[in-house]
Model the fold of this input.
Amino acid sequence: MSNIKVKVKEKDLNTIKEICKSFDNKPGELINVLHKTQESFGYLPAEVQEVVAQELSVPVAKVYGVVTFYSFFTMLPKGKHPISICTGTACYVRGAENVLQEFKRQLNIEVGQTTDDGKFSLSCLRCVGACGLAPVVQVGDKTYGRVSPEGVKEILAEYSEK
Amino acid sequence: MITNLGGFKMSQHKQIRIALNNCGVIDPENIKEYIARDGYVALGKCLTEMKPQDVINEIKESGLRGRGGGGFPTGLKWEIASKNHADQKYVVCNADEGDPGAFMDRSILEGDPHAVLEAMAICGYSMGATKGLVYIRAEYPLAIKRLKVAIEQAREYGLLGKKLFETDFDFDIELRYGAGAFVCGEETSLIHSMEGLRGEPTIKPPYPAEKGYLGKPTNVNNVETYANIPIILRKGASWFNKIGTEKSKGTKVFALAGKVKNVGLVEVPMGTTLREVIYEIGGGIENDKKFKAVQTGGPSGGCLTEKHLDTPIDFDNLLAAGSMMGSGGMIVMDEDNCMVSVAKFYLDFTVEESCGKCSPCRIGNKRLYELLDRITQGKGELSDLQRLRNMSLVIKDTSLCGLGQTSPNPVLSTLDNFYDEYLAHVTDKKCPSGECKDLMTYFVIEENCVGCTACARVCPVGAITGEKKEVHYINPEICIKCGACEERCKFDAIIVK
Ligand SMILES: Cc1cc2nc3c(=O)[nH]c(=O)nc-3n(C[C@H](O)[C@H](O)[C@H](O)COP(=O)(O)O)c2cc1C
Ligand code: SF4
Ligand code: SF4
Ligand code: FES
Done:
């Protein structure tokens, strides 16, 4: 991997190198490096993975293997307002599935996708520890409890002008 | 504090606080408050008055068993790790808390982080380790922050670092982050994940106590297990082992949720019955519906019924009843929950979380899921039920790690306890609780409909047609079975069958 087809900007390249260096370029720190990198870029596209691989002297395949193994890492950019629906057991028992279906229908995307305008993305997570408020939905940092399918429209409307 | 979410008014009756004794009482970001409640006294006592083997003996005598699911005796585990000699050993805290619908460990870390740090140092002393690692899920940002603050403060106070309590014992703790993989809660996967690899399990033996992190002897315990340690050493093994049942000592924290009136964390002595937890602490079933099942043990556990309500909760009883203690999720279900769908829900989780290393789990669980999916769509046959059972048993017997070995439990326990419900799905193509959408149709009862048009306006897909003041009609081809019309109709003119 000598000459990478660099789509990564010079500035970003340096950021990634800095991050790797802060972990002494140790291969064992791969997961920590990826956490930090995703924190600053929002996601981990293939080009970014290539740089990480080179810096830590591990095969790109290994980096890719780790990125795809863990659901916390994503290779796709999230929407401006990432929507997460809790599909933990308590939320499931109280009807999270119907809420999820309604979000999918209203946004016309599947889980893991982002709307064409880049505004919303949809993901599921397991138990945010607010089971008392089940079913729970998070939009960005904001948490909504006792969400019903009928309430979905209202939630989306809050973000429509912004 | 997470325990306040949702404004529960949980009854303290029947509860004893040991693991949670400081949660919500102290400011977790102020070490002084922990110290004021006898914090780090146990560590001081161990280092200055007790030999490592004395500490191990005390924990063994207390009867404490691991709270991460398996229930392995903690003292014995420490003893094994202490006897394996190496230049470096590690103490690991498993804070991966993967059970979807449980948040006991998170609450402890957010409410009382020092108890876990103190216990890890004690464990390090007893087994001869100087390094501790907390493996925590990245999804718990507040717990991570509190741990960082706690570690910093403990270092400032000389309670972590070099020469603790002016002895020759050094101990320090670092954090490692999970990245959203349930299987990483399994101890061999967890170790691989800490090494920067894909979190795939390996066959045991060798156990982590022999060859763990970086190939060195490693002790892995759960957060709640550690949270019990300082108080046991302060109050003595003989205080602790008087609480609980013959083979399960102390208390267990449960995250009570689902269709109960009061939801939240409860800590009860081992031996409390499910009925006491659900009815006396949980206040009974919400909306006075009928109790149907209670699920314990998360994706590895099973659904228990009415007939198990008076079973005293402990490791062995729950296992005998076809479920397990697990890490402490306790989900109550009522008559509206379809047990086939519940089994499918868990299998969906397992399929997603299987690491794919061994075929029984990777392929078998997928086939189980597909069978269940067919049944919930009304396409199942009677022979599918036997197939479900056979396949479940094969997966349990042949999978490599605990995930695959327990993943069919939700299927087996619902087959055992709710066979009639499975039968209704495959023979009558009916879902008795009305949860399986594919087996239901929405109808307008002509006699009741006054033609107010309310349903047609609320229907999100325009499946309902009809003139004003005339009977309306729901087109089953378009209807997505969202139930909005049924809820809206003031004349009880819409029913599901
Ligand atoms: C699939 C799987 C997931 C697990 N998840 C967790 C977990 O989230 N937290 C935990 O403490 N133990 C979990 N365990 C159990 C651990 O492997 C291990 O037994 C436990 O951390 C030991 O600690 P203890 O003896 O204190 O219970 C899991 C086991 C399996 C097989
Ligand atoms: S049982 Fe499942 S999770 Fe465990 S090693 Fe096999 S495939 Fe992976
Ligand atoms: S809401 Fe009820 S009464 Fe009104 S048109 Fe619909 S079915 Fe008829
Ligand atoms: S299951 Fe959704 S918050 Fe716990």
Q: What stands out?
A: DSSP finds 20 helices and 13 strands in chain B.
